[in-house]
Amino acid sequence: MSVGWHADDEQLFQGKSRDCRIISLSLGATRSFELRRNWSDASEDHTVRLELGDGDLCTMEGMLQKHLQHRVPREHQVSGPRINLTWRWIVKHAPGCPLSRRAFR
Ligand SMILES: O=C(O)CCC(=O)C(=O)O
Ligand SMILES: [Fe+2]
């Protein structure tokens, strides 16, 4: 299992235009989690690598989704199952949703 380079830029969370907090809990096998800048720079590799183990919490906050991408790279030496639970805050509600009036206060 792997997750390719991406930003969590879904409209629901508005992570490219305002502060956005995403909290994740990893359970199971330890996996690498990498971050890189959101624009190409072939001359230098600024990739940052973390290890997310069983029970680890990871947060991505502020404007991280605008400026950085993240991924969980393929690692052939890793075996065993892993799940990652995430908590995200919906800030863009459908028109007519009772929460939409509060969303941008
Ligand atoms: O599995 C992870 O640690 C990250 C998953 C992820 O990037 C996502 O759900 O958007
Ligand atoms: Fe993600």
Secondary structure layout plus pairing:
Blueprint: E1 3-6, E2 22-28, E3 31-37, E4 48-52, E5 57-60, H1 64-67, E6 68-72, E7 82-88
Antiparallel strand pairs: 1-6, 2-5, 2-7, 3-4, 3-6
The structure holds 2-oxoglutaric acid and fe (ii) ion.
The site of fe (ii) ion (FE2) has 3 residues, from loops.
Explain what the structure shows.
The chain is mainly beta and 105 residues long. It has a single domain, classed as Jelly Rolls (Sandwich). Helix content is 4%, strand content 37%. The chain has one helix and seven strands. It has a four-stranded antiparallel beta sheet. It is globular and about 50 Å long. The N and C termini lie far apart (39 Å). The structure holds 2-oxoglutaric acid and fe (ii) ion. The site of 2-oxoglutaric acid has 10 residues, from strand 2, strand 6 and strand 7.
Question: Can you tag this structure with a few keywords?
Answer:
Jelly Rolls, mainly beta, binds fe (ii) ion, 105 residues, 4% helix, 37% strand, 7 strands, 1 helix, binds 2-oxoglutaric acid, single chain, three-stranded antiparallel sheet
